[in-house]
Amino acid sequence: MTRSKAILAFFVGRPLVAIALAAVVVGVLVLVQTHRQKTPVTNRTEHVALSDEQQMELGARNYADTLRQNRASIISSGPQYALVQRVAKRIEAVASRDKPAFVWKVTLLRKNVANAYCLPGGKIVVYSGILPVTQNAAGLATVLGHEVAHATAEHVAERLERQHLTGIAAAIIAGGVAVTPQQYIHVMALLGAASALPFSRAQESEADHIGLVYMARAGYDPHQAVLFWKRMQRASRGKEPPEFLSDHPSDAHRVERVQHWLPEAERAYKPLASSTTTTS
Ligand SMILES: [Zn+2]
Predict the structure, then answer these.
(1) How far apart are CA 114 and CA 240, in angstroms?
(2) In terms of C-beta distances under 8 Å and separation of at least 24 residues, what long-range contacts does 5-14 make, across chains too?
(3) Which of 46, 92, 147, 158 does the annotation list as catalytic?
(4) At the N or C end, where does the chain have fewer CB atoms within 10 A?
(5) Distances from the Cα of 63 to the Cα of 60, 100, 105, 119, 193, angstroms
(6) How far is 110 from 73, CA to CA, in rounded Å?
(7) How far away, in angstroms, is 245 Cα from ligand 1 center?
(8) Which residues lie below 8 Å from residue 192, measured CB to CB, with a gap of 6+?
(9) CA torsion angle for 83, 85, 88, 93 (degrees, to 10)?
(10) Could you read off the pLDDT of 238-266 as tens digits, one per residue?
(11) φ, ψ of residue 248 in degrees (nearest 5)
(12) Residue 180, SS3?
């Protein structure tokens, strides 16, 4: 028996050893590639290992699962659908300048929960329950700006890095074999999807800041963000906080911080050409 055949025989008889080794190899490969990167707007240096392509793959998997599980709730026509598509397109165009590789897509789900989220790589999910609170296009742009900012600032990749889960995530992306069910669930729970683990307080605040500038760049009056957050504060009183209210300092402070960033957002604000700023 040749040496390579002997090695092969060893692994064939011990598949778990082969799987564990594969995970280690993938993990090491990824860790070597850890790189520094600047967040858009806030220019913070962060350390991430997953490439744009890996983040897109991770998000696309979760997105496909979500669409499959919620097929009956997908809204694909009507005024709410048109509004979400229109506003998302404007926000995505702005975010694409920071992340040209990402492939953006938004899905509106019929669900009576005031929530929305954007997966790594640009896949967005909006629940119809947020629309009574957003009230108008600028309110919706506030939400989408915030959610999309989590993706362009690579907050999920950063969290995976901090929790030493990058190797596991890379293994999932590479085929999903070299992980335990618990590890898989843990990584998926970090994606920023609804009812998953919340982002850190600093990341939430950063998403508010970037999102505010994004909505302004997209042509929506940033002052509308302050009104939206006040409405959200009233609407969520006594309820479980949605993704973008989770793990936050008090909502009052959030409004204060947003007001603090308003001058910067005003400089970025390019009003839409038509007179339909608040309705289109
Ligand atoms: Zn958030």
Answers:
(1) 10
(2) none
(3) 147
(4) N
(5) 5, 20, 10, 7, 9
(6) 5
(7) 7
(8) 117, 118, 119, 120, 150, 155, 156, 199, 243
(9) -130
(10) 665 555 555 454 556 888 999 999 999 99
(11) -110, 155
(12) coil
Q: What mean pLDDT is predicted for residues 23-27?
A: 54
Q: Are 149 and 134 in contact (CB under 8 A)?
A: no
Do residues 119 and 50 make contact, with C-beta atoms less than 8 angstroms apart? no
Catalytic (active site) residue 147: yes
Structure tokens belonging to residue 122: 């640009």
**How do residues 107-122 score in pLDDT, each as one tens digit?**
999 999 888 999 999 9
Q: From the CA of 8, how far away is ligand 1's center (Å)?
A: 47
Name the residue with tokens 């509106």: 108
Q: Are 69 and 195 in contact (CB under 8 A)?
A: no
Question: Do 165 and 186 contact (CB within 8 A), yes or no?
Answer: yes
Full strand arrangement of the beta sheet holding 116-118: 74-75, 105-109, 123-127, 116-118
The pairing of beta strand 123-127 with beta strand 105-109: parallel
The residues, any chain, with a CB within 8 Å of residue 148's CB and separated by 6 or more, are 91, 92, 95, 104, 118, 122, 124, 211, 214
Per-residue pLDDT, 114: 87
Cβ of 183: how many Cβ atoms within 10 Å? Answer: 17
Report the separation in Å between the CA atom of 204 and the middle of ligand 1, taken as the mean of its atom positions. Answer: 5
What distance in angstroms lies between residue 212's CA and the mean position of ligand 1's atoms?
12
Ligand 1 centroid vs 279 CA: distance in angstroms? 24
DSSP bridge partners of 125: 107, 117
Amino acid, res. 257: R
Q: Which two tokens stand for residue 172?
A: 């999932």
Burial class (CB in 10 A: 0-12, 13-18, 19+), 155: buried
